[in-house]
Amino acid sequence: MTVAATALGLRNVACMDHSPLAIAACRRNHEGAAIQGDICNPEDLAKLFVVMQGNSMGLMCGFPCPPFSVMGDQKAFRDSRSEVFIAALNAAFLYNSAYVILECTPTTGQYREVQDPLGSFAQAMNFESRQQILRLSDVWPCQRTRWWCILVPASAAHHISILPSLPKFPHLQTSGDIMPSWPLWSRSEEDALSWTQEETDFYASTLILENHELRLSGTRPTLLHSLGHHPFACPCGRRHQGLSHERLLRDGVALSMLPSTFSANHYRHLHPCEAGFLCSLPADFIFNLTQPRSDLPLIGQIAAPLQTIWALCHALRPLQLHGLGSWQINFDSPNEVLLSYINTNLEVCKQLWPTCEHRHQQEVHFEEDDTSFSLLVEPMTSVQHFLHAHQQLLGWAHRTTLYRDGVPQLPNALLRGGAYQIVVSRPKHTRPAPTDLISVKLHDGVASYEFHGPAGTRLSTILETLGFRYKPGIEFCNLFRSFRCGDALWQNEQGEVRGVGIDVPTATGVHHFEAYEELRQILQVLPNSTREAIQVVPHHIVQLILKRPASFASKLLINEHNGPFTWLVFPLLFQSHWSLLILDFELSEFWYYDGLRDFHLDSVMQVISLITETFNLASSRLHQSNPVEQHGGDHCAAILLRNFGIHFDLWQPMTDAALRQWATSLQAQEELRGCGQTEQSQTHAWLCKFLTMKGVPEADAPARATLALKKLGQAPVAKAISQANPWAALKQLANSQQRPFQWIQHDELMNHIQKRAKEHHGAAPRSSNKPSKKRAEPAPPVSPSALVLAPKAFVDERDQELAQLPIDKVTPESNGIILGTVEQAAHFLKGQKTISINSLAMLTTTEIPSAMHGKLTVQHMVWPALLADSAAPILVRGSCVQLGDHAVKKVLGPAPSPASFVPELFKLQVYQDQWPLAWSDFTLRPLKALVQHFDCLQFCDGSTCNNASSCKRFHPAVEEEIDMVILDAFGWKWSDATGATANSKKAASFGIMVRVPPSAAPALLAISATDGLYTEMRDPLSKGPSTKYAVIWIKGRYWLIGAETAFTSPILQLGSASLIITPIAAIKSRAPQPIIGSLQTLQRLQFPQGEDPLQVRDPWASALPAAPTASAQPAASKLEEISQQLHTSVAEQVREQLRSFSDSCMDTDDSRLSQMEASISELQAQSSQFAGWFNEAGERTQSLSKQVASQESQLSDLTVKMTRADQRTEQLRNTVGKLRQDFQSDLEASMARQLESMESLLSKRHRTSD
């Protein structure tokens, strides 16, 4: 997607991916921030917001395919990877994106789980969506079918009714249409891509290999994420083991195999450049060629640039037509945009990729103006090689471009057999000679010189003729006016000679070839022995080795500099700032010179590491020095040249003021190449003047402006000063940094206020009542003899403690720390060489001035010591000078880890009809109204309350170092009574998500259902309800309940809610009958056999379908019969017991009476139980009868409808028969009329005899 945006001229602000391989590829090929992270993680999402700086931009996202793909498990949102889709919509909502483009597998659009959130997002953002399935094979010979969705503002959506399918390009149907032959890669790259024996066995046992060999006559199948790693774990870390044979046989294998160029009967995988090109990536896309297999899985995950360009054109076109954006490309013709990208990509592939013809020497024909010549070039010779040689012949001021068939050739393109055209652009001051002879008059401040010669003579020849080449005292700096030693003079000139050699670029906008050529001009005037020992590396080589893989950079360095030399000089340009790096091969030491100390030192270390590996240096040391510090200004290039001369003893150092004056004097004319104010110098000059007006001393303003440009960046500062209120914009920019930048110091501001008050009012402002704190005077320096080094303060490279050494006991083998003064350190700094083979350093009691540093490493620091007389600890601000071959370092303590906790996520919902205060006031500031109304949302630090237990405000826990209750608030939503999104004035409820400390969660749960506020704890990760608490919402307005006694009040208070109690009916309670029986009998009476105790007296039983039984009438008669039998049996048993009782004696044992009473009670209970059973059976039977009657009614209705249908069918049959008869009769009548007509015609024909 980033490739497509760049092709359309859009600026890529940032890209984010969870894979480190993808981030590495982005950093190699694109500008803008490349963030490795998860968009589902709020912290990573915040990083994107910081990069965007609050601007509204477009968002493009290709979310994971496996949850929706037919090749995956199709778990949809049960797969955690699908959360990226929701997170992308959330990010677009939070960032207020101008448009959104989504891409995934073709089946994604069929999921309701995808369409519903899309609809909600479009409604919330007032967007409209357009969806389409795009097939790459329509415009490019590769299968890649994807679902695309673009979302644009509804106000502009009427300009695009649908997202159309891709057009069909018939001239691009096979792989041979875009690649006439497979490229020829290096042996190391092809070996890395060749099949291992394990892969050969794996594929041979699973597949028919002949069916998977790629041919240029066909279309490439879809490239998947498993490309190149089927039997192995994926290098991106998403799959930790190889794919099984069963899965490959089930789902198929997207295998791409090619025959090896170097080994017969061997196969290899696609090269990442080939695979990317087949997916429509640019042919010059930079992959990790040291490990080409590692980038193959990325090809299976990308969104094809051609599809992305098509979607982007249709997304930006309505915005362009509606005036919501301006771009240089006209999106009215997406087909032309596609063809332009395709043609450019094919041409780049043709120029860059090596083929079989590059194996051998080739004859190349060159045409220049009216001349032509032929060369026999070596294999793999690039255009850059030819341009470099051709430029050496013409001089550095000329610019050469090579064309083939009218197409300009890229510098890294490979030369092929055929004809090339050479176009040379001359220097701007070169003009046709008006005369054959010219006169040049020069003056060097002492004497005058005059030269007469032919027009077109180079200035270097004139100077050498006049004897300026080795004249003592002449510095190699600028020449008069805008001419340089390599320039040719075509007319009479006169001027002052300020130096012989080069024209110093004093601004930052210098062409990168100029510094290289200017240093080479210096070498031309040096003795032969010195000149042959020094080689200058062109700056563009440094840029290439930083952007290209290590193998490419090493090859480039060796090819460019393979002769015998002692010194290798690198002029470096980082962020428009010049610095100098020099390598001494004999000592394996690097010398780094820069006017700004430690500026882009990480990039310098990267260059040093690459050079060390390229030339196999066993060990190397870095000496960092800045003989002249740069405090503002734009004379960094002059400092580079001055440092070059200092290093090789060509001249003595200059002070910063003298160097500024020298650099200013070099700008003789505005047309001087490399001089004049650039954008950064203009910004710097504006800042100096503006800060002086705001109170910064004039002497400190240049340094403050330089520091601001370094900390904040030139582009943001330039944007800020272009605003209507630049001071407010500059302060906002400074506060946006992690550590705010301070434009004006406090004492500077106070002095400025007093100065302005005195100017306007004639008197200084009144001092405040508070006594001002006077700044303490700096303490005098302590004598080193009065100090003792603190124990365990410094260690060597092996972390061994170093002891203090007397300065008079230092030897070439000393190992320790010396305490001394700046004057004592000056002796060692003048020598500019280390004095010990071990770890030795000197600590000074004051800081060493930068002008004294020299070639030794000097570091300013605060170091601990003890007073010798009292052993009192003291901190000394001074410098550390490395005097040994091994570095000495200060012991640093462990960094403290900040306390942290995981906040709780709550959903707050407020309803208008229950909110006790004015709803109109609530809609103005809802969150503030909640905090003011509920005490538990207000923070209390304990200073305003005497007892924390009785205070209703929030008191944080001991481990919670916070000063507020609501840590974060998001997801604001106003809803109407139906739950739909509404305006705040028409809303019936308000919802918001908040994060609070864990200790505040219980209080927030307790106030739920109070004054219209309802709280619900949510899971911060799964975006669902919390697993700790659950809120159950009950539908309904009333409940039927039972109570043993009547309520004392008709209104029951439940918190802040009230319930009205309405009695329905009083149930008369009966005294329980005493039942005496065995335990088994009691259990049987309580829970009859076959009945579920949980279903006894089930209040929901009436809603269940009745059990099928016989008709209700037999059941009722059966019930009466059983009841009658029970009554008769009970009556007989009673009479029998009474009869036996009357016959018995009065003193009969009471046990018999008790037994009889128990039997009677048991019979009564059984009778009651049976009655309940049969009543229930009757009710179920009646219900069944009703259902049967309903079904009979429906059946009769269905019978009537079928009868009507039969009647209609019969009518239709009769109608069709009648129509058939009418048609037949009409047809017969028509035929009869035609026969009669024919007979009449035949009868009128003249008959002739035979």
Automatic annotation (TrEMBL):
Coiled coil: none annotated. The keyword Ribonucleoprotein does not apply. InterPro entries: C5_MeTfrase, Papain-like_cys_pep_sf, SAM-dependent_MTases_sf. It comes from the Eukaryota. Keywords: Methyltransferase, Transferase. Pfam families: DNA_methylase. Signal peptide: none annotated. Residues 756-784 are annotated as: Disordered. This is DNA (cytosine-5-)-methyltransferase.
